[in-house]
Amino acid sequence: MTAVWDRPVAMLGLGVMGAGLAERLLDSGTSVRVWNRSPERAAPLGARGAAVAATPVEAAAGTGATIVAVADGEALDGVLLGRHGVLADGGYPGILLCASTVSPDDVPELARRASGVLDVGMMGNREHARAGQLRLYVGGDASVLAAARPLLDLLGKQVVHVGPLGTGMRLKLLLNLLMGVELQAMAEATELGVAGGLDRQVVLDAIAHSGFAAPVMAFKASRLASARFGDPDFRLRLMAKDLALAVAQAAGAGLRLPVTEAASRTHQAAVDRGYGDDDCAAVIRMVGAAEAVGER
């Protein structure tokens, strides 16, 4: 018989992925408690039956698991260790799942304050999250993973134990590295083609249907063709953050990643130009003479 998760779950952070996870849990009949720094994001989930909490610690109270999906390490520290944080006044007896993409070195520190911690690298988009079709790469103790497995099986079509705490984040960062580099390469190839007189749509169709294209390139081709970067699947500032984390991890290991370093600089320049809250495909605005992309 397939195990069923039958305890309340707290979902902290209701961005694209966090909201999708909360919807998936509600659809499965799970009791869900939600919190978000901007309370208006919690309202639609409250209307669907989620209990809306005023603070992270209030959301986590009485739950069997807490999932944290916030933007970065600073936000993670605030949610867990800040005023009204889940771990601010003591430990958390349930399973704490860090689904925020942060430095792998930050994750083991959490285990000192909670009895069971897993770091979960999520691969997929908002629709995958809503449908329980994510791929989940998990770091942490095997016994904690076994206890959390019924919950993770609700959220993902594949759950892979990568290794000890921090390894889920390490794998997530290198996968996001590939996505950032692939998108920038596709943007550069597209602008080179357009500069040479080729039709933009023809170029993007050729790339998307070629043997060189990864699924993410085909998925993002329509954004590059239409220059519609609002309602982001993955914000550009988050990609810039993840590329910077990958570069820092490489430096700590004594490695140089020249392509990743270049992509990191380009993405940070795009954030500095004010494109950080656009979809990550907006990196094309920084390519060559295509600065005006999005104003066509």
TrEMBL record:
Residues 166-286 form the 3-hydroxyisobutyrate dehydrogenase-like NAD-binding domain. Pfam families: NAD_binding_11, NAD_binding_2. It comes from the Bacteria. The active site is at K172. Residues 9-163 form the 6-phosphogluconate dehydrogenase NADP-binding domain. PANTHER family: CYTOKINE-LIKE NUCLEAR FACTOR N-PAC (PTHR43580:SF2), OXIDOREDUCTASE GLYR1-RELATED (PTHR43580). This is 3-hydroxyisobutyrate dehydrogenase. It comes from Gandjariella thermophila. The gene is mmsB_1.
